[in-house]
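notes to self, project folder thing:

trying the whole complex as one job this time. last attempt i did each chain seperately and stitching them together was a nightmare. two parts in total, labels are on each line so i dont mix them up again. if this works i'll redo the older ones the same way
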Amino acid sequence: MPNELIIDDKAFRSILLYEFLVHPVHFVAFDRFSSVFIGHPWVLEDFRYWFDVFYQRKFDDDENDEQEPIRDMRDVFRIDKQCLRIVILYESLHGKLMELNEKYQIQRQKEYAESIGFPVLPVSIILDKAFDRYQNMIRVFGYDIIDFSEFSFWYYRFLGQQFDWDFEPTEFSRYSFSDLPISIAEKIVKETGYFEWCRLRKVSRGLRDTVDNLKIDISLDILIRSTGALIKFNDNDNAVDYTPKNKKNPNGYTPRRPIIILEELFVKPFIDLSILFKNSSKVNFKLFKIECQFGTTEEFENKFFGDLKELLKELNTQIHVESIALKAVRAIDFLGFMKPGVLKTIQFDRRPQISRESMEEIVEMKQWKHAKNFVEYGFFQGETFPLPMENLFHFRKIDSVWLAGIDNGQLIKIKEVLLNSSHIEAYHLLFLNADFDWDVIDREFGSIIPESDGEIRHLKIPDSQEYYQIDLKYYEMRIQRKCY
Amino acid sequence: MSSTEQGTSSAAPAEPTTAPESAAAPEVPESFYYVHGKDKVVHKVSAGALQHSALIHGMISNLGYTEEQAKANPFPFENIDGDILQMVVDWCNQHKGKPTPPEDTNLPKQKEKLFDLVLAVNYLEIKELLTYCCKQVAMMVKGKSPEEIREIWMIPTDAEDEAAEKEAKKRAGKEAAGETAAAAGDAK
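result (full assembly):
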């Protein structure tokens, strides 16, 4: 359809004149034109011919017409609205083409990521191109020819395959964002994402208030890297890359992810993050994870955690975090800033080994005592839970926790705890050294169920329809509460 | 999908024509209702399609209209532009009797009057379409600077806002003074 539209001589000349104003080189214009109007009937020579006419400050080549040279070639678009609309169509086709290219790239990246089993899929958001194309046009025309409201009206209309040039709207849009009810404005702001919230706050006082009062559930994943920090909000599509001034995008790794250059290391992420922390009663962190990328120096890491601690201290608030994941050795500084009771899951990166003294302090914290689940993760190199296992028995679920050793006495203690508590759902304990007697195990936990897959035993809970399924090996014990 | 025809909001609107029913049409005859926007163009919409709108669904249930009564009294939505109402009606028809899938390809493609559409959808209480529209409005400013956001969403600066507020107060004050003077004149 667009090809049929530009068969019209005036339409063709309008686009050519626009290209001439953008960059007066006819073969560049030919390339750009051919990229959107595939199979058009014009040849390079036509472009050269018309560019020569434009150089003479004329819009048409009528030799009988003794027309005065046009003083400002942009007047063609000022005077004739149809010419202007044709250029908007041209920009809309470029925008569409960019979107299609991006879609194709994303699809290719996704397929590749899946084929190699890459766990993190690439960014998949295709940004709206209307404003970029508008800016492109404004660079040539200036702001006096058209405003964004009028441009976007035609831009989207053409994208919607409505090519009626002569359509004269009575008004472009009666409303703007400021006319929306507060509840709708909040809904929209919520949809924009973390990176935009930081920017929306700078637009107006009203929007700052809206952002500061958002009631949201979010997952925050901070990755400290040797070149700054990557903050992921909810998913991979909402990530912001904070990079120090002297290390701007050193690997070319994130060409399409917003990058914020830091004037001073880590000050900026914390200004942005404080938006979420300040609003502690309304922002609920489903997950608050801080990871350190391999190769990050300790000095760099200390700077990050030091600044974060300072910020939380300054705000003097306890944030609502349901699940926290960070290095065990850093936990002592941060658990205190989480609201006890709200914090359900504690996940520790087991490396490096946490000291006994630090762990003793942690287990005395309300946050530890009120948490329901405890998980350890990360590559194991001999790090074990440094305190007696009794400190773990208040958890409902325990996953991948290494104990230094286990013996008959401790196993009997576990059995007593299991039979005397109603809250335990699933435990997975691992042992660095095991020293127990299988006869004692058979006596205490029952013998192996013959038809079971593995070494499963059933420990019946007296006076109930429930039992514990216990899978015990030399190096691990898996316990699961089940019903008959 | 929907049929429209120039008509008036008077008691006897022009007879709208319906789109040809598919071969797999339900056996039970479907009831139809009529709505019109600011441009008075009457749209014939099935009850199934109108279920998306909590507002119209509520009106239908409360009024207990027969088809004849509904035809004679189209629901007037004078605050909604005709083209916007057409868009909404089309969407409702396309999603008649089924929930909107997460990747909905039948959503309105015209975004030229998105804010008008958001307000209309909010007024008509079409939850799923409102969510989609909000996402579209949010996408408009993805990756943009504060200045660009201001331009795209047409948000006045704080200074402009304050000036407009002052102006409105001034005008309200003048009007109030004028009314008081008129009332005093009447009393004399």
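what i see at first glance: Chain A has two domains: 2-159, 187-483.
need to look closer tmrw
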